[in-house]
Structures
1.
Amino acid sequence: MDDCATPWIRGTQAFVIGNALITDSGGSSSTVTACAMLLDAPVIPLLPRPLAAPPQNFSPPTFYIADAGVKGAGMFAARDIPAGGLILVDRPIAVVPSDVDAPWKREAFDALLPRISQISRDALLALANCKPLSECPVVEGIALTNAVQIDLPVPLLAALQEYGGVFPNVSRANHRFSISPISLARAAINPDFCSCGLNASVKWDLKSFSVSMYALRPIRAGDEIVQQYVDVLSPRAERRAHLARYDFECMCKHCDLPDEDAVTRSDAARAELRNWRHLQPRFLPWSTDMCRADDAIIVSNLRALALIEQEGLYGLQVPFMEEIALSYAVLGDESRFREWAQQVVDLCAGQDPERSARFAGWIADPQSYKQWGWRAKQRLLLDKQKDLVDVDISIPW
């Protein structure tokens, strides 16, 4: 935050209002930058300073903003984007806490607006607003419609505070499949072109004070880029109730189901995925438990991936793919390990480069994975020595 931050106190609530040290093409000064913030005072010393440079956006951009039918403007792919590919990098225009008391919300936004550069102000006012003027002023309505939750550092023992960031481009990505001439034709061919099976996700990076948006599955040129507004593992009724806050009803193929039996099946699939880790075997215990079937994790996780495919929940697939790859590693199956590990590398290249690099190293040299083939070796010994006499099945790590 800049050196011109000032207290903002209303009622029993005390915040500090100031600017993030972010510039735009309009430049910046000590009192006006590309991003204004309303923060709890103890958070400020914990913010990184100076901010790291965010990843570079592509030139020309991978997306464009166009009419998205009944939902106003939307974000569309300008070219084919592979699964795991970077779509854009964005920095916030405004950052606000979630618990400003209702009587003071208007004043909070009125205080932020003069601190935002004209370029950022124009971008903010161009965003959608699902709130009528009878309910709240324009700027507050825009923030409530578009804010994306971001994680800011919280002092030890401090009350947990949630913050939302309003972004000029990421906020353009709608939740639902919207109607445009290209998307109508595409939807007729590809019914997965929708939202409760979203095709993009965002990752917040505090060090650079930016979000990066990545493709969760291949996105074709002209497809609308849609992101998550709701807990996608909740039942359809709960998802629709939440989206009613944005004044629309999601009509993607995962919500616009033909009958109650289909709704029940979909809700059951999402509930199964929600509870997966509590009910299904995990990789680490299985890897050394010779009483379990050798394909237990593989069969289990293939079931999860089938549910993910059915419900279009591509953002959940990496952990399951990772466990399948590692299962083949401890079984010593090099070809299948490489097949699944490569999918992890591709999907994580942008979102989780450390994981991607780790798996790329194992693909280059499978034997460098220290548990490589251990389970296969122990199974062979057990098959030869049923009575386990003088058989060493100790764990070497």
2.
Amino acid sequence: MDSRVESTTGLHARPVAYIFSEDLVKVSTSTYESIISSRLPSNRNRSLLVYSLVHAYGLLATCTGQESQRFLVVRPRPAGQKELLAYHTRDYLEYVMNQSSDAQNLLEASEFGLEDDCPMFHGIKDYITLVAGATLTGAATIRNNISDIAICWDGGRHHAKKARASGFCYVADCVLAILFLKRTIPSTHPLKKPRVMYLDLDLHFSDAVSQAFHKPGSTTAAQVLTLSIHHAAPGFFPLSPLASLPDVDDPAFDPFTLSVPLKAGASNKTFLRIWPIVEHVKDIFRPDFIIVQCGLDGLAGDPMATFNWSLGGEGSLGWCIHRIIHEWQGKKMLLGGGGYNMSNAARAWTYLTSVAGGIPLSLDADIPEYSGYLRFKPSFTLDVPAGNMQDQNTEEYFQAIEATYEGILSVLDSRMVPPTL
């Protein structure tokens, strides 16, 4: 990927890399149209709606005059087989890339997770290579100093496993990007092994990403730290022991694979309360690269109806992303994820795009009159406000999380200190 994205020099304030192509939008849109009959919520036309609203607000327009360019639209290329094999098994790729939706072996399809919420569909090969390629293109722009911030809203497929599709996710683009970014940077002297922090804000636990880098029993510092903030409850997808609050006394404990499970109704107040934990983890780990999976199924109004998070206000999704982008050290990449209220997904990712570019739109802003205008009724504004759901995250539960993380942060800090000779 490095050789295809050339670095530029002389930029003091690099524009945000916005990963976009018509092919990517088409394949993302057609993908979800083809699985609309599946039993889990689909994302029909979401990609198209997001990009059209971003364009309607004129966020990607080239700036003129004295004002610096805020965004650089970067066209992704499809990922090659070698890049996909950096994580996925050859058997999985050969099967999923060479089967048609009407001529699959059901037994083999089941073995690779290609059933239920992840059925085969026409164009799956293009979908896998384009989505993976888009996320890797974003990673290359920040690794090669083209940008300090990259955005790829079609990425964030955090349930795809090494040899199985799962939870609407067919390709592990998050894992591939982490593996790419953790590679030694040859231009540094002495050679540097970058640290990569993966922060997942989706309603659902980042099971595949967390499992990919989970190293129980290790006593050394790791290059990758994963932190997932999500809902966890009996029977709630995905089921994983790593989704629970970590236990430092558990033999499987790894201070670089972290979770903050939240109860139903999590609101701005909830995220404001736990955010110091996120900041402390970041400060101890000191990442060179930060990947943020910005799933939206925790926002109020989503069909999942589990959290009551909003787009604006202290502790909101917008507040969190603003802090990460403008206050944290390191280079950042924002990815998409869940989100099944299509209009709210377009609102949220458009707003986060403006935040990343340093030109935040007003949440009271009217939706521009364009072809998709009627999709945003009845408010016809950008905001995604909180609803009336009760927040079940109690003071007692917050204290339990904080007490647990006191021990976790202590272990993490000790791992980051080089041993004395």
